[in-house]
Each structure stands twice: as C-alpha cells, then as structure tokens.
Design goal:
about 120 residues, alpha/beta, six-stranded mixed sheet, 4 helices, 6 strands, elongated
Length: about 120
C-alpha cells in the first residue's frame, strides 16, 4: 500500500502534522554500542533511547541514541532523513525536543515548529 494513500485516512485539520519523541529502554545482553548509563531511568544499568518521528499517527523515521544524549539534537535529523512520501508542514515535540536552535533550523527549512509544553 502506498504510504501517502494510507496517510490520507488520518487527517489532522487538513495538514500534515508530525511529532517526535524518545522512548527509553534498558539494555539486555549483549549491550549495544550506543548504550549509556542514565541513573534517572535505569539506576545502575545502561539503556538506549529510541527516538521516533510520526505524522498523523503513522511513524516515518526513527533512530537509536544514547540514553544521556539530548533528544533536541535529533529533531531536524528525523525530519530531514524522512524517506517516505509523508511531508509534514508542522512538527511538535515535548520539552526534551525543544531548544532555541530548532526554531531557527526548522523555520529555515520550511517547517513550523510547535513544541508542546506542559503547564504546571
């Protein structure tokens, strides 16, 4: 099935809106090269982060990063290395994916950066 055809079944306000987020996983044996210590998530163990981009409920790209690497450094990479037919115009992240450089970089390449911030 054509990715773009499947995508049209899940519209979000007639625009292609993407988002990206990381999921933490504790490593099993053998330990991958990108595995890092992160006491906050794994205690004394090592783990990785699966950083995934999705558009209108369809995943379009992913990469494995170390658990202690900033997710905000991967936002543009996820969008730029998208090899699918899905071409988002707006991109969101949580606070881990937000930094000032992402606003400028994504704007320069024609994306609207719309990070989601939780109110406390």
């Amino acid at each position: 099935m054509d990715e773009a055809a499947d995508f049209r079944h899940h519209p979000v306000e007639d625009a292609i809106h993407s988002s990206s987020d990381g999921q933490k996983f504790r490593d099993a044996e053998p330990i991958p090269v990108r595995s890092r210590y992160s006491p906050k998530y794994f205690g004394l163990k090592k783990g990785i982060t699966n950083y995934t981009g999705g558009a209108n409920h369809v995943p379009f790209n992913a990469r494995i990063i170390g658990a202690n690497e900033p997710e905000s450094h991967c936002v543009y990479d996820i969008l730029a290395n998208n090899t699918t037919d899905l071409r988002p115009s707006t991109h969101s992240t949580d606070t881990h994916g937000t930094n000032e450089a992402n606003f400028a970089i994504l704007d320069a390449f024609g994306y609207q950066f719309a990070p989601f911030h939780l109110a406390r």
